[in-house]
Design brief:
Elements: H1 2-20, H2 43-71, H3 86-108, H4 114-140, H5 150-179, H6 188-220
């Protein structure tokens, strides 16, 4: 019993001594880490990927609807002439050429090369404006009204869905272009430039797929 009491007393003394010791906060030296990250090292990049995945599913559902309707008709497009291809083909060229300034801005953003960023964003904005103008004309040569039938509604919703993404990306690119001429174009704003190019790639890829569906399948499928 005496030994047990002694051990208990010693244990209490040690506890009390540990409580009297000053608390030393744990610190982590992060001074060597960069102030801003790019690519998959930043959470905004991952959020953009998830957003594109959600929007991609919307396009996938519309494509599935379109091809389902195709299986229910012997003649395609049903009761309509195929959409005129000239403006869609012009937009195809614009989209492909726009990848050059998008890549330039993305590649120079980590280095903070404002001159290259401004050139890339300005050229990308010009291509986006041109694509938007061609898209307006595309609506006039679809050879169907949105209310004609299921095929017409699907085509109009599909091209309208992509137009929404195109205009949204145009606005975002213009905002970044304006900001590139201000002191705010630093840090996370440079990361936004790189992420903006990622989303433009999504707009281009979805646009190419949409062109195939609207213009190619009505002629060759």
């Amino acid at each position: 019993m005496a030994a047990r009491a002694l051990a208990s007393t010693i244990a209490r003394q040690r506890i009390m001594e540990s409580l009297r010791e000053p608390i030393r906060p744990l610190t982590l030296d992060v001074s060597s880490l960069p102030s801003v990250a790019f690519g998959e090292r930043i959470t905004t990049w991952l959020a953009n990927v998830f957003y594109m995945a959600i929007e991609g599913m919307m396009f996938a559902l519309m494509f599935a609807t379109y091809f389902y309707l195709r299986t229910r008709s012997q003649h395609w497009p049903p009761g309509h002439l195929p959409p005129a291809i000239k403006y869609g083909l012009a937009n195809l060229v614009v989209f492909l050429l726009s990848l050059i300034p998008a890549r330039l801005a993305q590649k120079r953003a980590p280095a903070g090369d404002l001159r290259a960023i401004r050139i890339g964003l300005a050229a990308l904005s010009a291509f986006a404006i041109l694509a938007t103008v061609f898209r307006i004309f595309e609506f006039t040569v679809l050879n169907c009204r949105w209310s004609d039938d299921a095929y017409a509604s699907t085509v109009w919703v599909l091209i309208g869905l992509h137009s929404g993404h195109l205009v949204t990306e145009l606005i975002e690119t213009l905002v970044l272009l304006v900001m590139s001429f201000t002191p705010k174009m630093e840090g996370t704003r440079l990361a936004d430039v790189a992420i903006n190019s990622d989303y433009w790639y999504f707009v281009v890829i979805s646009g190419l797929l949409m062109d195939f569906v609207i213009y190619a399948t009505t002629r060759f499928l």
